[in-house]
Specification:
single chain, 549 residues, alpha+beta, 23 helices, 47% helix, elongated, disordered N terminus
C-alpha cells in the first residue's frame, strides 16, 4: 500500500525571528572585570548610576572572600549600537570595535562595578569609596582615609589585580617580627586565590529587538527596578549632544515650578513622540530612534512649551493646582498635544478643551487607555487643531449620577480628585464657621484633613451602619478645626448649628458645598441613602454643565 503523502503545515504570515536560547556560563569575577574594562561588556545608558554605599561594597568583597554566593548576572549580546557608559568606578572603559557584537550588562551592574572599582582603582583621592584594604589580622575589609602605605598586615585590594604587586607585599610580611607572620602570609595567599578563582553564573541572551529585552529584564532583575520604555529609548537615542533623560528632567524641572514636577516620564515621552510626527503608542515612540539629535532637541523644546501652556490651562481654567490632582495622568498627554498644535486657542476652543477635560474625567475614559484609543484621540486632536471639527470628538457615553454614590473617597482615586476640583471651583464655605475653606490647602492633596464626611463614619459605625459612609457623595471640604468639632456627631445634630450660624445665608453656604435643600433635609432626617442620592444628583448636574453632553 502506497504511503499517503503528507503536506507539511504552511506558516501563517511572516515567521518571527526567534532569538537563540539564553546561554548559561560560569565565569571568574576577575575575568568579568577585565571584559568590562576592555569594552567587551558595556553598561547601557538605561542602567542606574552606581548607588552603593561604602558598607555595601565591603559586604560584597567580604562575601567573595568567604566564598558566599553573590548572585548571577545577565548579559545581552547584540550588534545594536546603544549608548553606554564610558567610565565605571572612576575607570576609563575601552571602546568596542565598530559593528562588533558586544555584551550589554542588564543585571549585575552594582556588583560588577564594585568588583571593578575595588580591584582596579588607580585614583589618588583618599576619600574615594575604592580606597580599600584587607586587614589580614582582623580578616575584614576596611576603607582607608589616606594614600600612605598601610601597615604591612593590611593589603590594598587593588593589588589583587596585579600578582606581582600583591606577592611583593606578601614577601614583606617576612620582615615582621610578630609570631603570626606565617599565618598572615597564609591568609594573604588564600585571599588572592579566592579572588582569582571565584566564579559566578552568567546568562547571555542572544541578539533580539530592544523592545523584547524589557520584559525579560523586568522578570529577572534582582534589584526590583523595572526597565521602562524611557530607559530603552534613552539608550537608543543617546548622543553626546542629546540625552533623553536630561531633556525630560529639564521639562519636569520647569513644570515643578508650577506644581506639576511629578508628571511621569513616560507621559512626557508620548508627547515627544507626537511632536516628532508619531503617536502616543509604544510602537510610535520607538521611531524616535530614527531622528537625529538636533531634531530630537527641537521636539523636546516644543514639548516643554506645550506643557507650560497645558498646565497653565489646568491651573487657571480648571482649578487643578498640581499633578497630584490630575484625575488621569495620560489626560495631560492629549492636553499637551492640543496646546502644541494650538498655542493660542480661541475662546470657543478653550471652551471645547475644557468640555473635553470634564467629559474624559467624569466618564473615566482614560482608566483603560489602549493603543486603539491613543490613535483615535490623536486623530481627534489633530482634526480639532485643523478646524475640521469644533469639538474634540470622542465617543464617550454619559455616565449616571450613581457614580458619586457608589464610589468611595480615596486620595488616589480619580473621581475623588474630580470631586475635589469641582468643590474647589465653588469656593466652599466652612459649614460651621462661615469662613471660606482654604481650597489651595485642600487641593495640596497631602492628606484628607480638609475633607469631611457629612455623615461621620464614626457616627455611622456607632449606629450600626457602615455602607455608604465613605461614598464620594458624603464628602465636603471643611477646615480641620471644624472637622474636629463635628467629630462623630450626627448630622441631624450639628446641622442645626449650621443653620443657626448661617441664618439667612444657609442656602448660599449649602450651595457652595453642592448640598441641595433636599439633601439638607435628608441629613436632618438622618436618612443617609436619600442624602447620597440627592447630593449625587447635584454634583453630577454641576459637572454636566461643564461638558457638551
Amino acid at each position: 500500500m502506497a504511503r499517503k503523502k503528507v503536506t507539511p503545515p504552511q506558516p501563517i504570515g511572516p515567521v518571527a525571528k526567534i532569538p537563540k536560547d539564553p546561554q548559561p556560563n560560569i565565569d571568574r569575577i576577575d575575568e568579568l572585570a577585565r571584559r568590562i574594562l576592555t569594552g567587551d561588556i558595556l553598561l547601557p545608558k538605561f542602567q542606574r548610576s552606581f548607588v552603593w554605599e561604602k558598607e555595601q561594597i565591603l559586604d560584597l568583597l567580604d562575601s567573595v572572600a568567604r566564598g558566599y554566593p553573590i548572585g548571577s548576572i545577565l548579559l545581552w549580546q547584540s550588534r545594536q549600537a546603544l549608548a553606554s557608559e564610558k567610565r565605571i568606578a572612576d575607570l576609563e572603559i575601552d571602546l568596542p570595535r565598530p559593528d562588533y557584537p558586544v555584551n550589554y550588562l542588564l543585571d549585575g551592574q552594582q556588583r560588577l562595578s564594585a568588583i571593578c572599582g575595588a580591584l582596579h582603582w588607580a585614583g589618588d583621592d583618599p576619600d574615594s569609596r575604592w580606597n580599600i584594604a584587607y586587614d589580614l589580622r582582623a580578616q575584614e575589609f576596611v576603607h582607608m582615609d589616606t594614600m600612605d602605605d598601610p601597615p604591612q598586615h593590611q593589603v590594598r585590594v587593588n593589588k589583587l589585580a596585579d600578582s606581582t604587586l600583591f606577592f611583593k607585599h606578601v614577601a614583606l610580611l617576612d620582615t615582621l617580627t610578630s609570631p603570626d607572620k606565617d599565618e598572615l602570609k597564609t591568609r594573604a595567599e588564600a585571599l588572592f586565590s579566592r579572588f582569582k578563582d571565584y566564579k559566578i553564573a552568567t546568562v547571555t541572551l542572544g541578539d533580539m529587538e530592544i523592545k523584547d529585552v524589557a520584559p525579560i529584564f523586568e522578570r529577572i532583575n534582582s534589584t526590583g527596578t523595572p526597565l521602562t520604555i524611557v530607559d530603552l529609548m534613552r539608550a537608543a537615542t543617546w548622543s553626546p549632544s542629546f540625552d533623553l533623560i536630561d531633556e525630560i528632567t529639564q521639562i519636569r524641572d520647569v513644570l515643578d515650578q508650577k506644581g506639576f514636577g511629578g508628571i511621569d516620564q513616560k507621559v512626557i515621552l508620548r508627547n515627544l513622540s507626537a511632536a516628532s510626527g508619531g503617536g502616543f503608542s509604544a510602537e510610535s515612540i520607538d521611531t524616535l530612534r530614527r531622528h537625529g539629535a538636533a531634531d530630537l532637541k527641537t521636539y523636546a523644546q516644543a514639548t516643554e512649551e506645550a506643557y507650560r501652556r497645558a498646565v497653565d490651562f489646568l491651573n487657571t481654567d480648571i482649578g487643578v493646582p498640581g499633578d497630584q490632582v490630575i484625575p488621569y495622568s495620560n489626560q495631560l498627554t492629549v492636553l499637551s498635544e492640543i496646546f502644541r498644535l494650538i498655542p493660542t486657542p480661541t475662546a470657543a476652543q478653550y471652551k471645547a478643551i475644557a468640555a473635553w477635560f470634564w467629559k474624559t474625567s467624569v466618564s473615566g475614559y482614560f482608566s483603560g487607555w489602549n493603543t486603539g484609543m491613543m490613535a483615535s484621540d490623536l486623530k481627534a486632536t489633530r482634526d480639532f487643531a485643523q478646524g475640521t471639527t469644533k469639538n474634540i470628538d470622542i465617543a464617550i457615553p454619559k455616565p449616571s449620577a450613581d457614580i458619586w454614590r457608589t464610589r468611595t473617597f480615596r486620595l488616589n482615586n480619580a473621581h475623588a480628585k474630580i470631586l475635589a476640583i469641582v468643590l474647589g471651583d465653588k469656593q466652599p464655605i466652612d459649614l460651621l464657621t462661615g469662613q471660606k475653606v482654604d481650597v489651595a490647602k485642600a487641593l495640596a492633596w497631602t492628606n484628607g484633613k480638609e475633607f469631611h464626611h457629612v455623615f461621620p463614619t464614626a457616627y455611622l459605625k456607632k449606629s450600626g451602619r457602615t455602607a455608604g459612609g465613605n461614598s464620594l457623595a458624603n464628602i465636603v471640604m471643611l477646615t480641620s478645626a471644624s472637622n474636629k468639632v463635628i467629630s462623630d456627631r450626627a448630622p441631624k445634630d450639628y446641622m442645626k448649628d449650621v443653620a443657626k450660624a448661617a441664618g439667612g445665608s444657609l442656602s448660599t453656604w449649602l450651595a457652595s458645598n453642592l448640598i441641595s435643600r433636599e439633601a439638607y433635609e435628608a441629613a436632618l432626617a438622618d436618612d443617609l441613602e436619600s442624602f447620597l442620592q440627592a447630593r449625587s444628583k447635584t454634583i453630577h448636574e454641576e459637572l454636566l454643565l461643564k461638558t457638551d453632553w
